[in-house]
Amino acid sequence: xxxxxxxxxxxxxxxxxxxxxxxxxxxxxxxxxxxxxxxxxxxxxxxxxxxxxxxxxxxxxxxxxxxxxxxxxxxxxxxxxxxxxxxxxxxxxxxxxxxxxxxxxxxxxxxxxxxxxxxxxxxxxxxxxxxxxxxxxxxxxxxxxxxxxxxxxxxxxxxxxxxxxxxxxxxxxxxxxxxxxxxxxxxxxxxxxxxxxxxxxxxxxxxxxxxxxxxxxxxxxxxxxxxxxxxxxxxxxxxxxxxxxxxxxxxxxxxxxxxxxxxxxxxxxxxxxxxxxxxxxxxxxxxxxxxxxxxxxxxxxxxxxxxxxxxxxxxxxxxxxxxxxxxxxxxxxxxxxxxxxxxxxxxxxxxxxxxxxxxxxxxxxxxxxxxxxxxxxxxxxxxxxxxxxxxxxxxxxxxxxxxxxxxxxxxxxxxxxxxxxxxxxxxxxxxxxxxxxxxxxxxxxxxxxxxxxxxxxxxxxxxxxxxxxxxxxxxxxxxxxxxxxxxxxxxxxxxxxxxxxxxxxxxxxxxxxxxxxxxxxxxxxxxxxxxxxxxx
Length: 536
Ligand SMILES: Nc1nc2c(ncn2[C@@H]2O[C@H](COP(=O)(O)OP(=O)(O)OP(=O)(O)O)[C@@H](O)[C@H]2O)c(=O)[nH]1
Ligand SMILES: [Mg+2]
Description:
The protein folds into four domains: 179 residues, Rossmann fold; 85 residues, Elongation Factor Tu (Ef-tu), domain 3 (Beta Barrel); 72 residues, Alpha-Beta Plaits; 81 residues, Alpha-Beta Plaits (2-Layer Sandwich). It is of the alpha+beta class. The protein contains 14 helices and 26 strands. The strands form five sheets. The chain has an eight-stranded antiparallel β-sheet, with no helix packed on it. The radius of gyration is 24 Å and the shape is globular. Bound molecules: guanosine-5'-triphosphate (GTP) and magnesium ion.
Protein backbone atom coordinates (compact mmCIF):
# COMPACT_ATOMS: atom_id res chain seq x y z
CA UNK A 1 0.00 0.00 0.00
CA UNK A 2 1.17 3.53 -0.77
CA UNK A 3 2.47 4.98 2.55
CA UNK A 4 0.30 8.01 1.76
CA UNK A 5 -2.64 5.92 2.98
CA UNK A 6 -1.03 4.60 6.16
CA UNK A 7 -1.38 6.25 9.58
CA UNK A 8 0.41 5.02 12.69
CA UNK A 9 -0.83 6.45 15.97
CA UNK A 10 -1.13 5.57 19.63
CA UNK A 11 -3.60 6.53 22.32
CA UNK A 12 -2.00 8.05 25.41
CA UNK A 13 -3.55 9.50 28.57
CA UNK A 14 -3.61 9.49 32.32
CA UNK A 15 -4.90 6.26 33.89
CA UNK A 16 -8.66 5.74 33.42
CA UNK A 17 -9.22 8.63 31.06
CA UNK A 18 -10.75 6.26 28.53
CA UNK A 19 -8.03 5.08 26.12
CA UNK A 20 -9.22 1.50 25.86
CA UNK A 21 -12.84 2.59 25.56
CA UNK A 22 -11.90 4.88 22.67
CA UNK A 23 -10.00 1.98 21.08
CA UNK A 24 -13.21 -0.09 21.39
CA UNK A 25 -15.16 2.51 19.45
CA UNK A 26 -12.47 2.78 16.76
CA UNK A 27 -12.49 -1.00 16.36
CA UNK A 28 -16.25 -1.02 16.18
CA UNK A 29 -16.57 1.81 13.67
CA UNK A 30 -13.98 0.32 11.34
CA UNK A 31 -15.66 -3.09 11.52
CA UNK A 32 -12.58 -4.84 12.96
CA UNK A 33 -14.80 -6.94 15.21
CA UNK A 34 -18.38 -8.07 14.85
CA UNK A 35 -20.98 -7.02 17.37
CA UNK A 36 -20.89 -10.48 18.90
CA UNK A 37 -17.12 -10.37 19.44
CA UNK A 38 -17.26 -6.89 20.92
CA UNK A 39 -17.28 -6.20 24.64
CA UNK A 40 -16.06 -3.38 26.86
CA UNK A 41 -12.30 -2.69 26.70
CA UNK A 42 -11.89 -5.59 24.31
CA UNK A 43 -8.13 -5.04 24.04
CA UNK A 44 -7.64 -5.62 27.78
CA UNK A 45 -7.59 -9.36 27.29
CA UNK A 46 -5.63 -10.54 30.34
CA UNK A 47 -7.76 -11.71 33.28
CA UNK A 48 -6.10 -9.28 35.62
CA UNK A 49 -6.63 -6.41 33.22
CA UNK A 50 -10.32 -7.16 33.00
CA UNK A 51 -10.77 -7.65 36.70
CA UNK A 52 -9.04 -4.45 37.66
CA UNK A 53 -10.20 -2.50 34.66
CA UNK A 54 -6.69 -1.33 33.81
CA UNK A 55 -4.46 -1.83 30.82
CA UNK A 56 -1.15 -3.49 31.67
CA UNK A 57 0.24 -4.24 28.23
CA UNK A 58 0.15 -2.04 25.14
CA UNK A 59 -1.77 -3.56 22.20
CA UNK A 60 -1.18 -2.85 18.55
CA UNK A 61 -4.03 -3.31 16.05
CA UNK A 62 -4.41 -2.74 12.31
CA UNK A 63 -7.68 -1.15 11.15
CA UNK A 64 -9.06 -0.21 7.76
CA UNK A 65 -11.03 2.97 7.42
CA UNK A 66 -12.78 4.42 4.40
CA UNK A 67 -12.45 8.15 4.90
CA UNK A 68 -14.80 10.84 3.68
CA UNK A 69 -12.34 11.66 0.88
CA UNK A 70 -13.24 8.25 -0.60
CA UNK A 71 -9.86 6.63 0.03
CA UNK A 72 -9.21 3.52 2.06
CA UNK A 73 -6.68 4.10 4.87
CA UNK A 74 -4.71 1.60 6.90
CA UNK A 75 -4.57 2.69 10.54
CA UNK A 76 -2.17 1.10 12.99
CA UNK A 77 -3.44 1.85 16.47
CA UNK A 78 -1.59 1.24 19.74
CA UNK A 79 -3.56 1.35 22.98
CA UNK A 80 -1.16 2.09 25.85
CA UNK A 81 -1.37 1.61 29.63
CA UNK A 82 -1.82 4.69 31.81
CA UNK A 83 -0.21 3.52 35.06
CA UNK A 84 3.21 4.97 35.83
CA UNK A 85 4.78 1.51 36.29
CA UNK A 86 4.22 0.79 32.62
CA UNK A 87 5.34 4.08 31.12
CA UNK A 88 8.12 2.29 29.25
CA UNK A 89 5.36 0.63 27.21
CA UNK A 90 4.20 4.11 26.22
CA UNK A 91 7.63 5.27 25.13
CA UNK A 92 8.10 2.14 23.03
CA UNK A 93 4.71 2.62 21.41
CA UNK A 94 5.58 6.24 20.62
CA UNK A 95 8.67 5.25 18.66
CA UNK A 96 6.49 3.21 16.31
CA UNK A 97 4.10 6.09 15.51
CA UNK A 98 3.85 9.45 13.79
CA UNK A 99 0.92 10.69 15.83
CA UNK A 100 -0.66 10.39 19.28
CA UNK A 101 -4.22 10.88 20.47
CA UNK A 102 -3.85 12.59 23.83
CA UNK A 103 -7.05 11.72 25.69
CA UNK A 104 -8.06 13.98 28.58
CA UNK A 105 -11.03 13.30 30.82
CA UNK A 106 -13.42 16.28 30.56
CA UNK A 107 -14.36 16.06 34.21
CA UNK A 108 -10.85 15.65 35.61
CA UNK A 109 -8.71 17.68 33.28
CA UNK A 110 -4.95 17.41 32.91
CA UNK A 111 -3.37 14.96 35.38
CA UNK A 112 0.19 13.85 36.11
CA UNK A 113 0.44 11.17 33.41
CA UNK A 114 -1.24 13.48 30.91
CA UNK A 115 1.69 15.85 31.32
CA UNK A 116 4.30 13.09 31.40
CA UNK A 117 2.93 11.34 28.31
CA UNK A 118 2.42 14.56 26.36
CA UNK A 119 6.08 15.50 26.96
CA UNK A 120 7.16 12.02 25.97
CA UNK A 121 5.19 12.29 22.71
CA UNK A 122 6.59 15.75 22.02
CA UNK A 123 10.13 14.49 22.58
CA UNK A 124 9.52 11.83 19.93
CA UNK A 125 8.38 14.63 17.55
CA UNK A 126 4.91 13.18 17.23
CA UNK A 127 1.88 15.09 16.05
CA UNK A 128 -0.38 15.30 19.09
CA UNK A 129 -4.16 15.44 18.66
CA UNK A 130 -5.87 16.46 21.90
CA UNK A 131 -9.11 14.53 22.49
CA UNK A 132 -11.41 15.56 25.33
CA UNK A 133 -13.34 12.50 26.45
CA UNK A 134 -16.36 11.80 28.68
CA UNK A 135 -18.25 14.91 27.60
CA UNK A 136 -21.43 12.98 28.47
CA UNK A 137 -20.64 13.30 32.19
CA UNK A 138 -22.57 15.99 34.05
CA UNK A 139 -19.31 17.24 35.60
CA UNK A 140 -17.64 17.65 32.17
CA UNK A 141 -15.99 21.03 31.58
CA UNK A 142 -14.62 20.77 28.05
CA UNK A 143 -13.86 24.48 27.65
CA UNK A 144 -11.93 24.58 30.90
CA UNK A 145 -9.99 21.45 29.91
CA UNK A 146 -9.13 23.04 26.56
CA UNK A 147 -7.63 26.01 28.38
CA UNK A 148 -5.66 23.65 30.63
CA UNK A 149 -4.25 21.76 27.65
CA UNK A 150 -3.08 25.04 26.14
CA UNK A 151 -1.67 26.55 29.30
CA UNK A 152 -0.13 23.46 30.91
CA UNK A 153 0.96 21.44 27.90
CA UNK A 154 1.40 24.26 25.39
CA UNK A 155 -0.56 22.28 22.80
CA UNK A 156 -3.04 24.26 20.69
CA UNK A 157 -6.48 23.01 21.67
CA UNK A 158 -8.94 25.14 19.74
CA UNK A 159 -9.60 22.21 17.43
CA UNK A 160 -9.47 19.59 20.22
CA UNK A 161 -11.98 16.83 19.55
CA UNK A 162 -14.86 16.62 22.00
CA UNK A 163 -16.03 13.04 22.35
CA UNK A 164 -17.69 10.48 24.53
CA UNK A 165 -15.89 7.21 23.94
CA UNK A 166 -18.58 5.40 25.85
CA UNK A 167 -21.53 6.55 23.79
CA UNK A 168 -19.61 7.09 20.55
CA UNK A 169 -20.32 10.84 20.23
CA UNK A 170 -17.65 12.50 18.10
CA UNK A 171 -15.60 9.36 17.48
CA UNK A 172 -16.04 9.52 13.71
CA UNK A 173 -14.38 12.95 13.80
CA UNK A 174 -11.44 11.30 15.55
CA UNK A 175 -10.99 8.94 12.60
CA UNK A 176 -11.20 11.83 10.14
CA UNK A 177 -8.75 13.88 12.21
CA UNK A 178 -6.25 10.99 12.25
CA UNK A 179 -6.40 10.77 8.47
CA UNK A 180 -6.16 14.53 7.99
CA UNK A 181 -3.70 15.54 10.69
CA UNK A 182 -1.37 12.63 11.46
CA UNK A 183 1.44 12.63 8.87
CA UNK A 184 1.95 9.48 6.79
CA UNK A 185 5.11 7.41 7.47
CA UNK A 186 8.25 8.64 5.74
CA UNK A 187 10.32 5.57 4.76
CA UNK A 188 10.57 3.99 1.33
CA UNK A 189 10.01 0.32 0.50
CA UNK A 190 12.93 0.47 -1.97
CA UNK A 191 15.61 1.08 0.69
CA UNK A 192 17.38 -1.73 2.58
CA UNK A 193 15.30 -3.16 5.43
CA UNK A 194 15.31 -1.49 8.85
CA UNK A 195 12.55 -2.55 11.25
CA UNK A 196 12.31 -1.51 14.90
CA UNK A 197 11.34 -4.17 17.46
CA UNK A 198 8.96 -2.56 19.92
CA UNK A 199 7.21 -5.52 21.50
CA UNK A 200 7.51 -9.28 21.73
CA UNK A 201 5.75 -12.19 23.33
CA UNK A 202 6.26 -15.90 23.69
CA UNK A 203 4.21 -18.48 21.85
CA UNK A 204 4.73 -22.11 22.81
CA UNK A 205 4.54 -23.29 19.19
CA UNK A 206 6.37 -20.46 17.46
CA UNK A 207 8.89 -19.24 20.04
CA UNK A 208 9.40 -15.52 20.41
CA UNK A 209 7.12 -13.46 18.19
CA UNK A 210 8.40 -9.93 17.60
CA UNK A 211 6.30 -6.93 16.77
CA UNK A 212 8.04 -4.48 14.50
CA UNK A 213 7.53 -1.16 12.85
CA UNK A 214 9.13 -1.28 9.42
CA UNK A 215 10.95 2.04 9.01
CA UNK A 216 12.62 1.40 5.66
CA UNK A 217 12.48 -1.32 3.04
CA UNK A 218 10.31 -4.42 3.00
CA UNK A 219 10.38 -7.82 4.61
CA UNK A 220 9.07 -10.98 2.97
CA UNK A 221 8.51 -14.57 3.99
CA UNK A 222 11.59 -16.86 3.95
CA UNK A 223 14.03 -13.97 3.82
CA UNK A 224 17.15 -14.24 6.01
CA UNK A 225 17.13 -11.58 8.69
CA UNK A 226 19.50 -10.46 11.40
CA UNK A 227 18.86 -8.78 14.74
CA UNK A 228 21.60 -6.20 14.98
CA UNK A 229 22.29 -6.25 18.75
CA UNK A 230 22.22 -10.03 19.09
CA UNK A 231 24.09 -10.58 15.81
CA UNK A 232 22.03 -13.75 15.23
CA UNK A 233 20.48 -14.63 11.87
CA UNK A 234 17.07 -16.19 11.37
CA UNK A 235 14.78 -17.09 8.50
CA UNK A 236 11.36 -15.47 8.43
CA UNK A 237 8.72 -18.19 8.80
CA UNK A 238 5.64 -16.09 9.01
CA UNK A 239 4.63 -12.45 8.80
CA UNK A 240 1.36 -11.05 9.96
CA UNK A 241 -0.54 -8.41 11.78
CA UNK A 242 -3.17 -8.21 14.51
CA UNK A 243 -6.65 -7.03 13.62
CA UNK A 244 -7.00 -7.89 16.68
CA UNK A 245 -7.08 -11.50 15.41
CA UNK A 246 -3.71 -12.48 13.94
CA UNK A 247 -3.75 -12.65 10.15
CA UNK A 248 -0.91 -13.88 7.95
CA UNK A 249 0.66 -11.53 5.40
CA UNK A 250 3.05 -12.04 2.50
CA UNK A 251 5.12 -8.97 3.24
CA UNK A 252 5.48 -5.91 5.42
CA UNK A 253 6.55 -2.61 3.86
CA UNK A 254 8.00 0.66 5.10
CA UNK A 255 5.40 2.29 7.35
CA UNK A 256 3.75 -1.00 8.36
CA UNK A 257 3.42 -2.50 11.80
CA UNK A 258 3.31 -6.28 12.05
CA UNK A 259 4.75 -9.37 13.66
CA UNK A 260 7.57 -11.66 12.58
CA UNK A 261 7.87 -15.34 13.49
CA UNK A 262 11.38 -16.56 12.77
CA UNK A 263 12.14 -19.42 15.14
CA UNK A 264 13.64 -17.07 17.70
CA UNK A 265 13.97 -19.27 20.76
CA UNK A 266 13.79 -16.81 23.60
CA UNK A 267 12.12 -13.45 24.06
CA UNK A 268 15.41 -12.26 25.54
CA UNK A 269 17.10 -12.82 22.14
CA UNK A 270 14.83 -10.23 20.54
CA UNK A 271 15.66 -7.14 22.50
CA UNK A 272 13.27 -4.20 22.58
CA UNK A 273 14.57 -1.36 20.46
CA UNK A 274 16.76 -3.67 18.40
CA UNK A 275 16.75 -3.38 14.60
CA UNK A 276 15.82 -6.16 12.17
CA UNK A 277 17.86 -6.00 8.97
CA UNK A 278 18.18 -8.25 5.94
CA UNK A 279 21.32 -10.35 5.75
CA UNK A 280 21.64 -9.74 2.00
CA UNK A 281 21.30 -5.92 2.27
CA UNK A 282 22.64 -4.86 5.66
CA UNK A 283 21.67 -1.40 6.92
CA UNK A 284 22.76 0.46 10.07
CA UNK A 285 20.86 0.02 13.35
CA UNK A 286 18.08 2.43 14.30
CA UNK A 287 18.54 4.52 17.46
CA UNK A 288 16.38 2.11 19.53
CA UNK A 289 15.69 2.80 23.18
CA UNK A 290 17.09 2.24 26.62
CA UNK A 291 16.74 -1.17 28.23
CA UNK A 292 14.19 -1.22 31.01
CA UNK A 293 15.50 -1.79 34.48
CA UNK A 294 13.61 -3.01 37.50
CA UNK A 295 13.32 -0.36 40.21
CA UNK A 296 11.72 -2.18 43.13
CA UNK A 297 13.06 -5.39 44.65
CA UNK A 298 11.56 -7.93 47.00
CA UNK A 299 12.13 -11.53 48.05
CA UNK A 300 9.55 -14.15 47.10
CA UNK A 301 9.56 -17.28 49.23
CA UNK A 302 7.28 -20.31 49.07
CA UNK A 303 5.30 -20.97 52.25
CA UNK A 304 5.95 -24.68 51.79
CA UNK A 305 9.55 -25.62 51.11
CA UNK A 306 8.30 -28.21 48.58
CA UNK A 307 6.98 -25.39 46.42
CA UNK A 308 10.49 -24.13 45.63
CA UNK A 309 10.83 -26.01 42.33
CA UNK A 310 7.29 -25.14 41.13
CA UNK A 311 8.02 -21.51 42.01
CA UNK A 312 11.18 -21.54 39.93
CA UNK A 313 9.28 -22.99 36.95
CA UNK A 314 6.51 -20.44 37.38
CA UNK A 315 8.97 -17.52 37.50
CA UNK A 316 10.65 -18.81 34.37
CA UNK A 317 7.32 -18.97 32.56
CA UNK A 318 6.29 -15.50 33.67
CA UNK A 319 9.59 -14.03 32.57
CA UNK A 320 9.13 -15.43 29.07
CA UNK A 321 6.49 -12.79 28.47
CA UNK A 322 7.73 -10.08 30.74
CA UNK A 323 11.22 -8.88 29.97
CA UNK A 324 10.98 -6.24 32.70
CA UNK A 325 10.74 -8.84 35.41
CA UNK A 326 13.97 -10.15 36.89
CA UNK A 327 14.68 -12.92 39.41
CA UNK A 328 17.56 -14.83 40.93
CA UNK A 329 17.83 -17.42 43.70
CA UNK A 330 18.23 -16.19 47.24
CA UNK A 331 18.15 -17.81 50.60
CA UNK A 332 17.36 -16.37 53.95
CA UNK A 333 17.91 -17.75 57.41
CA UNK A 334 14.35 -17.01 58.40
CA UNK A 335 12.49 -17.85 55.19
CA UNK A 336 14.60 -20.55 53.59
CA UNK A 337 15.09 -20.85 49.83
CA UNK A 338 13.39 -18.38 47.55
CA UNK A 339 14.05 -15.72 44.92
CA UNK A 340 15.06 -12.09 44.80
CA UNK A 341 12.86 -10.41 42.24
CA UNK A 342 12.99 -7.03 40.53
CA UNK A 343 9.89 -5.15 39.40
CA UNK A 344 9.09 -1.91 37.61
CA UNK A 345 7.04 -0.67 40.53
CA UNK A 346 4.54 -1.69 43.12
CA UNK A 347 1.67 -2.41 40.77
CA UNK A 348 3.95 -4.61 38.69
CA UNK A 349 5.02 -6.42 41.86
CA UNK A 350 1.45 -6.93 42.93
CA UNK A 351 0.51 -8.28 39.52
CA UNK A 352 3.39 -10.75 39.38
CA UNK A 353 2.58 -11.96 42.88
CA UNK A 354 -1.09 -12.35 42.09
CA UNK A 355 -0.37 -14.22 38.86
CA UNK A 356 1.97 -16.61 40.64
CA UNK A 357 -0.60 -17.35 43.28
CA UNK A 358 -3.51 -17.65 40.89
CA UNK A 359 -2.15 -19.15 37.71
CA UNK A 360 0.33 -21.45 39.37
CA UNK A 361 -1.47 -22.13 42.67
CA UNK A 362 1.50 -21.12 44.82
CA UNK A 363 1.34 -19.80 48.34
CA UNK A 364 3.97 -17.11 48.79
CA UNK A 365 5.58 -14.84 51.34
CA UNK A 366 6.83 -11.53 49.99
CA UNK A 367 9.37 -9.44 51.84
CA UNK A 368 8.97 -5.67 52.08
CA UNK A 369 9.85 -3.94 48.81
CA UNK A 370 13.16 -2.18 48.64
CA UNK A 371 15.43 -0.50 46.10
CA UNK A 372 18.87 -1.04 44.58
CA UNK A 373 21.60 0.80 46.47
CA UNK A 374 24.90 1.80 44.95
CA UNK A 375 27.82 1.19 47.24
CA UNK A 376 31.38 2.45 46.88
CA UNK A 377 33.83 0.26 48.72
CA UNK A 378 36.88 1.70 50.42
CA UNK A 379 38.88 0.19 47.57
CA UNK A 380 37.01 2.44 45.13
CA UNK A 381 35.02 -0.42 43.62
CA UNK A 382 31.35 0.41 42.97
CA UNK A 383 28.71 -2.29 43.38
CA UNK A 384 24.93 -2.32 43.18
CA UNK A 385 23.08 -4.13 45.93
CA UNK A 386 19.43 -5.07 45.88
CA UNK A 387 19.38 -7.60 48.64
CA UNK A 388 20.50 -7.60 52.26
CA UNK A 389 22.41 -10.82 51.65
CA UNK A 390 24.78 -9.06 49.25
CA UNK A 391 25.47 -6.15 51.52
CA UNK A 392 29.22 -5.73 52.22
CA UNK A 393 30.75 -5.46 55.63
CA UNK A 394 30.17 -1.90 57.00
CA UNK A 395 33.92 -1.37 57.41
CA UNK A 396 34.32 -1.97 53.64
CA UNK A 397 31.90 0.79 52.70
CA UNK A 398 33.06 4.26 51.77
CA UNK A 399 29.76 5.60 50.46
CA UNK A 400 26.14 4.46 50.08
CA UNK A 401 23.95 6.04 47.42
CA UNK A 402 20.27 5.44 46.84
CA UNK A 403 18.07 5.97 43.76
CA UNK A 404 16.27 9.30 43.58
CA UNK A 405 13.12 9.90 41.60
CA UNK A 406 11.72 13.07 40.17
CA UNK A 407 8.05 13.12 41.09
CA UNK A 408 5.35 15.32 39.65
CA UNK A 409 2.22 15.69 41.72
CA UNK A 410 -0.88 17.48 40.47
CA UNK A 411 -3.41 18.27 43.14
CA UNK A 412 -6.12 20.62 44.37
CA UNK A 413 -4.95 23.77 46.07
CA UNK A 414 -6.60 22.95 49.40
CA UNK A 415 -4.58 19.75 49.89
CA UNK A 416 -1.19 21.32 49.13
CA UNK A 417 -0.33 21.77 52.82
CA UNK A 418 -0.76 18.09 53.63
CA UNK A 419 1.20 17.00 50.58
CA UNK A 420 4.12 19.33 51.28
CA UNK A 421 4.28 17.91 54.77
CA UNK A 422 4.18 14.35 53.43
CA UNK A 423 7.00 15.02 50.95
CA UNK A 424 9.05 16.67 53.66
CA UNK A 425 8.60 13.66 55.90
CA UNK A 426 9.68 11.38 53.05
CA UNK A 427 12.99 13.25 52.72
CA UNK A 428 11.88 15.11 49.59
CA UNK A 429 13.42 18.24 48.09
CA UNK A 430 11.04 20.65 46.41
CA UNK A 431 12.06 21.56 42.89
CA UNK A 432 9.07 23.46 41.59
CA UNK A 433 5.67 24.79 42.59
CA UNK A 434 3.34 25.95 39.88
CA UNK A 435 -0.30 26.94 39.61
CA UNK A 436 -1.93 25.25 36.61
CA UNK A 437 -5.21 27.03 37.25
CA UNK A 438 -6.52 28.97 40.25
CA UNK A 439 -7.38 25.68 41.98
CA UNK A 440 -4.88 23.12 40.60
CA UNK A 441 -1.25 23.02 41.60
CA UNK A 442 1.69 21.08 40.15
CA UNK A 443 4.49 20.20 42.57
CA UNK A 444 7.82 18.79 41.48
CA UNK A 445 9.87 16.97 44.06
CA UNK A 446 12.98 14.87 44.24
CA UNK A 447 12.40 11.97 46.58
CA UNK A 448 14.32 8.84 47.49
CA UNK A 449 12.65 5.91 45.72
CA UNK A 450 12.88 3.93 48.92
CA UNK A 451 10.35 6.26 50.52
CA UNK A 452 7.87 5.77 47.68
CA UNK A 453 7.84 1.98 47.78
CA UNK A 454 5.90 1.72 50.97
CA UNK A 455 2.85 3.81 51.60
CA UNK A 456 3.52 7.06 49.72
CA UNK A 457 0.80 6.63 47.12
CA UNK A 458 -1.69 5.70 49.76
CA UNK A 459 -0.91 8.69 51.92
CA UNK A 460 -0.91 11.00 48.94
CA UNK A 461 -4.42 9.87 48.10
CA UNK A 462 -5.65 10.36 51.62
CA UNK A 463 -3.92 13.75 52.01
CA UNK A 464 -5.66 14.93 48.85
CA UNK A 465 -8.92 13.03 49.40
CA UNK A 466 -8.26 11.14 46.18
CA UNK A 467 -7.63 14.20 44.00
CA UNK A 468 -3.86 14.06 43.61
CA UNK A 469 -2.14 12.25 40.76
CA UNK A 470 1.49 11.21 40.70
CA UNK A 471 4.02 10.52 38.00
CA UNK A 472 7.71 9.81 38.51
CA UNK A 473 10.85 8.69 36.79
CA UNK A 474 14.30 7.79 37.96
CA UNK A 475 16.49 10.89 38.24
CA UNK A 476 19.77 9.39 39.43
CA UNK A 477 21.52 8.49 42.65
CA UNK A 478 22.40 10.52 45.69
CA UNK A 479 24.15 9.87 48.94
CA UNK A 480 21.78 8.19 51.32
CA UNK A 481 20.86 9.41 54.75
CA UNK A 482 19.17 6.11 55.53
CA UNK A 483 21.08 3.04 56.49
CA UNK A 484 19.86 0.22 54.28
CA UNK A 485 21.90 -2.46 55.98
CA UNK A 486 19.87 -1.94 59.10
CA UNK A 487 16.64 -1.35 57.24
CA UNK A 488 16.83 -4.81 55.90
CA UNK A 489 17.37 -6.50 59.19
CA UNK A 490 14.43 -8.43 60.56
CA UNK A 491 13.98 -6.05 63.48
CA UNK A 492 13.22 -3.42 60.90
CA UNK A 493 14.33 -0.08 61.94
CA UNK A 494 12.88 0.62 65.31
CA UNK A 495 15.96 2.57 66.27
CA UNK A 496 18.17 2.73 63.25
CA UNK A 497 16.62 5.32 61.01
CA UNK A 498 16.94 9.01 61.11
CA UNK A 499 13.64 10.82 61.26
CA UNK A 500 10.68 8.63 61.97
CA UNK A 501 11.93 5.33 63.28
CA UNK A 502 8.75 3.55 64.23
CA UNK A 503 6.79 4.77 61.28
CA UNK A 504 8.75 2.70 58.86
CA UNK A 505 8.19 -0.44 60.86
CA UNK A 506 4.50 0.27 60.77
CA UNK A 507 4.57 0.92 57.03
CA UNK A 508 6.28 -2.39 56.47
CA UNK A 509 3.73 -4.20 58.56
CA UNK A 510 0.79 -2.42 56.98
CA UNK A 511 2.04 -3.21 53.54
CA UNK A 512 2.52 -6.85 54.42
CA UNK A 513 -0.94 -7.18 55.79
CA UNK A 514 -2.80 -5.01 53.29
CA UNK A 515 -0.77 -5.29 50.13
CA UNK A 516 -3.62 -4.09 47.94
CA UNK A 517 -3.92 -0.67 49.48
CA UNK A 518 -1.02 0.75 47.48
CA UNK A 519 -2.74 0.63 44.18
CA UNK A 520 -6.44 0.94 44.63
CA UNK A 521 -8.65 -0.76 42.12
CA UNK A 522 -10.63 1.18 39.67
CA UNK A 523 -13.84 1.24 41.70
CA UNK A 524 -12.08 3.06 44.48
CA UNK A 525 -10.61 5.69 42.24
CA UNK A 526 -11.95 9.17 42.47
CA UNK A 527 -14.30 9.43 45.34
CA UNK A 528 -16.15 12.45 46.58
CA UNK A 529 -14.61 13.71 49.82
CA UNK A 530 -17.35 12.33 52.05
CA UNK A 531 -17.09 8.90 50.39
CA UNK A 532 -13.35 8.90 50.80
CA UNK A 533 -13.66 9.37 54.50
CA UNK A 534 -16.53 6.94 55.00
CA UNK A 535 -16.00 4.05 52.61
CA UNK A 536 -18.89 1.68 52.19
N1 LIG B 1 -19.21 8.39 31.19
C1 LIG B 1 -18.18 7.99 30.44
N2 LIG B 1 -17.34 7.05 30.90
C2 LIG B 1 -16.32 6.67 30.13
C3 LIG B 1 -16.09 7.23 28.85
N3 LIG B 1 -14.98 6.67 28.33
C4 LIG B 1 -14.52 5.77 29.25
N4 LIG B 1 -15.33 5.76 30.33
C5 LIG B 1 -15.18 4.96 31.54
O1 LIG B 1 -13.95 5.27 32.16
C6 LIG B 1 -13.38 4.09 32.75
C7 LIG B 1 -11.97 3.91 32.27
O2 LIG B 1 -11.96 3.56 30.92
P1 LIG B 1 -10.77 2.80 30.21
O3 LIG B 1 -11.07 2.84 28.75
O4 LIG B 1 -10.49 1.48 30.83
O5 LIG B 1 -9.58 3.77 30.57
P2 LIG B 1 -8.06 3.63 30.16
O6 LIG B 1 -7.57 5.00 29.88
O7 LIG B 1 -7.91 2.62 29.08
O8 LIG B 1 -7.43 3.11 31.52
P3 LIG B 1 -5.95 2.46 31.70
O9 LIG B 1 -5.68 1.66 30.49
O10 LIG B 1 -6.02 1.65 32.93
O11 LIG B 1 -5.02 3.61 31.85
C8 LIG B 1 -14.30 2.93 32.38
O12 LIG B 1 -15.13 2.66 33.47
C9 LIG B 1 -15.10 3.48 31.20
O13 LIG B 1 -16.37 2.90 31.12
C10 LIG B 1 -17.02 8.22 28.38
O14 LIG B 1 -16.92 8.77 27.29
N5 LIG B 1 -18.02 8.55 29.22
MG1 LIG C 1 -6.75 0.99 28.99
